[in-house]
Amino acid sequence: MVNEDYNIVHLSERAGRYLQIAGGEPTQNLLKLVKQELRLELRSALYQAMQRKLSIETRGVTVVIGDRQETVRLQVKPVLREGDVAKGFILVIFQPSADDVVRDVPVSSDEPVAHHLEEELVRVKTQLRLSNEQHDFHAEELKASNEELRSAAEELETSKEELQSINEELRTVNQELKIKIEETTLGNNNLQNLINSANIGTIFLDRSLRVSLFTPAAGKIFNLLPADYGRPLSDITHHLQYKDILADTEAVLEKLIVVEQEVTTVNKQAFLMRILPYRTSDDRINGVVISFFDVTKRKLAEENLRESEERFRSIVNQSFAGITEMDVTGKITFVNERMAELTGYSRAELTGGMAIQDIVHKKDMQRGGRLFTRCAKEGIPFSIEKRFIRKDGTEQWINNHVSLMRDVAGNPAYLIGVTMDINEQKAAAEALRKSEERFRLLSTSGLISIAFFKADGAITDANDAFLKLVGYSREELNRGAVRWDKLTPPEWMTRTHDAMDELQRTGKIMPYEKEYYRRDGSKFWGIFGGAQLAETEVGVAFVMDISELKALEQQKDTFLGIASHELKTPATSIKAYTELLIESLTGTDDESAQIAGKLNLQVDRLAALIHDLLETTRISGGQLILNKEPLDLNAVITEQAEELQQLNPGRKIVLRLHKLHPVVADRNRIAQVLTNIISNAFKYSPQDEKVVITTEQDAHKVTVHIRDHGRGIAADAQQKVFERFYRGEAAINAAPGLGLGLYIASEIIKAHSGTMAVDSKPGQGATFYFTLPL
Amino acid sequence: MKHIVLVEDDAGIQDAAKTILERAGYRVTLYANGDALLEGAAELADLYILDKQLAGVDGLDICRYLKGQPATMHIPVIMLSASPQIMSTAKAAGADAALEKPFKLKELRELVKAHINR
């Protein structure tokens, strides 16, 4: 079986006898494989079969196989049936037919040679006829080819024209290319400038990690020079504190991942480094790109921000104030520790869904709610004093300041509340209110007159009782018409100024008695005391009307005066008779003389007591009149000392007198002062202790000291010893007297513009001293 | 014998003083008030002793009167008083001396002696 090209497709086993494989390139072509003797016949048969499309049979073809001559019948059968899968293939059958050779060949001649020639001729004729036919066929084909060639020539012409037009297009494209190149150059320049201006360090590495491009910024990090192009990354030194750069770069190339991390240089520059594969536009990996963004400033800013936040957080957390962040509905989003303390809830509880309204006292809810809503809507901040209800149910007074925070767009974002504990203030305010109420009650009760005053004489405020006392109206008070300098009589002005000095010095005025003018010019006695109000120029004073008391005192003094005066008359007679009696009995050894002497002493004591009482009434009545004259004080002292020495023989008085200038004083009164003080010293010291009297002087005054060695006087009693009718506790039982001696002495010295005082320590005696001005 | 006029309304003092002065050798005339002196009815004295506090015209007024009369203005006056102030008030009224009650016998005699011989 062969195909249209006569190549063998299939071969039966016995067909091989008629084939002979020639030398050279092996072939499957049947016409080349078939034996020489059969080739011509077969070619002819095949040709005819193909051309005429029918089966051809050629008989009697002689072929020598081995040493035997064989006659073969050739059958060529093309497959012609339409639809047959084998259509186009040709079946060639070689059939040996020894007998046929003899039978089929017509015998035309007896002559064997002629016969053979004849046969040969027939066969050639046939072949010729076939050749002719073949030739005709070829001629036809040539004609067809010629036409094809002509048409091809025409096509060539067309192609030539097309080439010409393409050539023109190429020229245009070339022009465009030139423009593109210019644009690319421009783009390239722009890119270069962009790279420089962006200051982003970038290194391009090829697949073998050799430097193919870098930006100036990268050059600084990596010590790169233009000469380093093409050198491997591993050869390049850098300033980074980053050891794994090579390993990471290789990893990026291998795994096509992106490495991103912050790195710092040895000189504290910080960079955000990114290593990523270099991808071409057609998605091939051509190397690695390493880029560095300088984040030093950002790092610094971040650090500053972090510190600032840290600081802020610690301020917030350590704040004395509670701090709350709320949304516009009041829901709590943040609180500090102090706020948790103030409410008794934990921070987690407060921010876990609670709203500020949940902890506000019901009574304060409406008032606070209105302000809160207004703040949330209009941004008007507010402060409010209100109560929280703590987790344990107790009340917590607070002062809350709330303000609105807005977002970037200016919309209400959240509210900040700053909360102060005012429990103590509230308690203090309550205490103050109660205290004020008490004071007001005292002030309005009319029990006591109260006035507020200034040092300059003004009375700034007063209660009704005071106004009633001085006879002014409130309208006059408000007008400033009521002034303490106008209420004070001239004779009391000095004492009143002393009181103001005392206020300045000590912050208070110890109560004292003085007279006041009423509005109508009449006077009344008052007891007055005051105190400076802290940190103001204002003092508060009370005045009590003691006119009645004073009148009673006056009555008492008058009575004492009359009584003692009247007592003096019989005392004078008794004294005179006693002395007459003594005179009569002098020289006798009658016991009566001694008795008369004792009587005289008692009469003297009685007379002294009466004298003191009378003197006191005069002093308190302001009726002390001095009979002043120049005096040698030392002489008076000596005289009195001698007299007292005589009267008290067991006592010892020591005088240490220094030369003195004369003083102007009332001799009898000064003698009385000395007598009173020395008598007092005798009274309160043991019999065998001496009393020492010393005098001295300076430019302005003379000072007399009377020192005893008695029991001494306690500090708190040292002022009181000069008061009327004061007697030392021990003296009440032990020593006789009215308690007037030191009072009278002190008043006499005062009337001389001198001073009198005592220095003493209990158990160490006392030193009384007085001064008289020179 | 020197003559002393004593004006004193208290009988006890009158008596005691008279005794003291007579023992000292003086002649004493007593008055309970100043009427006789003011009327010029009294005998002139060598010294007057006047109690300050008298019913009616008091001793100081009598003293001023006596010191205002040519006949008596040279005669010494001693004032007697229960008041300790008498020293100064007596001088103001023109008296030559004063003595506070109760007085010592010796004081009275010395004072009288000092002034009566002047």
Description:
The complex is a heterodimer of chains A (774) and B (118). Chain A is α+β, with helices and mostly antiparallel strands and 774 residues long. Helix content of chain A is 46%, strand content 23%. Chain A is built from 21 helices and 25 strands. The longest helix of chain A is centred in the first third of the chain and has 87 residues. With 118 residues, chain B is of the alpha/beta class. Chain B is globular. The two termini of chain B are 15 Å apart.
Major sheet attributes of chain B: 5 strands, parallel
Largest interface (CB within 8 Å) is between:
A-B, 26 and 25 residues
Mean pLDDT of chain A, to the nearest integer, reads: 87
Tally of alpha and pi helices of chain A: 21
Taken as a percent bin, the fraction of beta residues of chain A is 15-25%
Structure class of chain A: alpha+beta
Name the quaternary structure.
Answer: heterodimer
Number of helices of chain B: 5
Q: Based on DSSP secondary structure assignment, what is the total number of beta strands of chain B?
A: 5
Class derived from helix and strand content of chain B: alpha/beta
**Succession of helices and strands of chain B:** EHEHEHEHEH
Residue runs with pLDDT of under 50 for 5 or more positions of chain B? none
What's the average pLDDT of chain B? 90
- The coarse overall form of chain B would be globular
Bulk shape of chain A? rod-shaped
The beta-strand count of chain A equals 25
N/C terminus separation of chain B: 15 Å
Task: Determine the fraction of residues in helical runs of chain B and give it as a percent range.
Answer: 25-40%
Largest sheet descriptor of chain A: 5 strands, antiparallel
Strand order of the largest sheet of chain B: 2-1-3-4-5
Helical proportion of chain A, percent range: 40-55%
